[in-house]
Amino acid sequence: AGKPPPAQSFALGDVLRAAVREDDKYKSVLTDVFTDKIVLVGYSAAAVGDMGQVPLSDYDVPLVMAHANAIHNLLHKNFLKRVGTTPLLLWVFVLGIGCTLFVVRWSVTKSTVVSLLLVVGHWVVGYWLLVQSQFHMGPVAPSLTIVLGYLGATIYRRVAIEKQERFVRKIFSR
User: pTM for this one?
Assistant: First the structure.
């Protein structure tokens, strides 16, 4: 979570050459750079293969930088926050009731499109909350609520239509 830490990277060969020289200039540079710092040693060359995807990134990064980011977040207490239970339950309730009302009142095509848009909208809102304010809103419960609301209302509609059809058949069969 959060922006990657400002990290300096040095070639290990340069560090070792500076460490073995007797020149005080190099020693002072090393002392200034590494004193009171956390030092991670890892590969940064793409050819070595220690590159990978990290969340919310479109490109491969050296995985040692992912570790640096994790350490930075731990040191600065920069963690993801969960959306509270009450707001999440309210959100699930609103999505469930809204979806059910749309499905019951509208045609199958319109209600299917609206239900899909509600699911996509929920995922977009969840992604926006994660990126903008580091809030994590679980995607499963609200999405499942929309799907179950859609299925429940569709089944209810089908049962009601069948009941009407039986009634009409009964009246006209006399």
Answer: 0.58
Residue whose structure tokens are 């009302």: 101
Using the structure block, give the residue that is written with the tokens 């060969």.
13
- Cβ-proximal residues to 60 (8 Å cutoff; 6+ apart), any chain: 46, 51, 52, 53
Question: What confidence tens digit (pLDDT) does each residue in 4-41 have?
Answer: 556 777 777 777 777 787 666 777 777 788 888 888 88
Half-sphere exposure of 67 (CA within 13 A, CB side): 12
3-state secondary structure labels for all residues of 47-116: HHCCEECCCCCCCCEEHHHHHHHHHHHHHCCCCCEECCHHHHHHHHHHHHHHHHHHHHHCCHHHHHHHHH
